[in-house]
Amino acid sequence: KNQVEQSPQSLIILEGKNCTLQCNYTVSPFSNLRWYKQDTGRGPVSLTIMTFSENTKSNGRYTATLDADTKQSSLHITASQLSDSASYICVVSDRGSTLGRLYFGRGTQLTVWP
Amino acid sequence: EADIYQTPRYLVIGTGKKITLECSQTMGHDKMYWYQQDPGMELHLIHYSYGVNSTEKGDLSSESTVSRIRTEHFPLTLESARPSHTSQYLCASGGTTDTQYFGPGTRLTVL
In this structure, are residues B102 and B7 in contact, taking their beta carbons and an 8 Å threshold? Predict the structure, then answer.
């Protein structure tokens, strides 16, 4: 069964600190993995996308890593800001359908305190 | 951020009412999607469309229906809303790649 598991479920950090969010998946065949940021009451917005051959991708203070062998990804946030408070969702796309089926994790709810 | 819009953003209605959630995109995307998301849970695909006059049910069974008469519009309708329909509904669209661009969502509460 294609699944995406994220940890931790929620996380509280102080402003300026770094944090790392984890994502494990069983989706096969694998096409790509995305990290989305979803602010409360908003739709998800894509942060990074990585294909099988990429093992790291940065977008400002966000750095995502991918280990396609172990089917694990992480999202590292550097020097956190209050605006980073959001849900971070790991999304994996399979290669097996023209639909471009996406498999969503439940997200990690990050809260940044001043 | 992509040009995809949803209205209304928030809706509180009574049981038994008929409602239509609007979704429109200005990117000319052929593919459009409706997802349902409960708090703290993952998004579940309830409907999708490959193009005009093409609609399919998604993974999660839903009593809602959709239509795709025009490329840019993908409205979702509930003929008789119930409290169990209370949720957030997210619309998304995509082009030739599998990237999906999401709207801001409609938070529906059925009393």
Answer: no
